[in-house]
UniProtKB/TrEMBL annotation:
Lineage: Eukaryota, Metazoa, Chordata, Craniata, Vertebrata
Compartment annotation: Mitochondrion
Organism: Xyrichtys novacula
Gene Ontology cellular-component annotations: mitochondrial intermembrane space
Protein name, UniProt field: Cx9C motif-containing protein 4
InterPro entries in the record: CMC4, Cys_alpha_HP_mot_SF
Length: 64
């Protein structure tokens, strides 16, 4: 039996969040952040991370 993808839970959470929020990514920043963390740890073992490999989080806008 194939091993479960270590980041599948986070990938599903992103899809669920995006669907619930009409695909407005800013509404799902927390779940996207969790996916990035998972991919940093498991990138070699997770097919779900293939789209996150070279992806960088957007620059934070500071109010300075």
């Amino acid at each position: 039996m194939p091993q479960k993808d270590p980041c599948q839970r986070q990938a599903c959470a992103i899809q669920k969040c995006l669907q619930a929020n009409k695909y407005v990514e800013s509404m799902c920043e927390d779940v996207i952040r969790e996916m990035r963390r998972c991919c940093e740890t498991h990138s070699g073992n997770s097919i779900c991370c293939s789209g996150f490999k070279d992806s960088k989080p957007p620059e934070s806008k500071s109010n300075t």
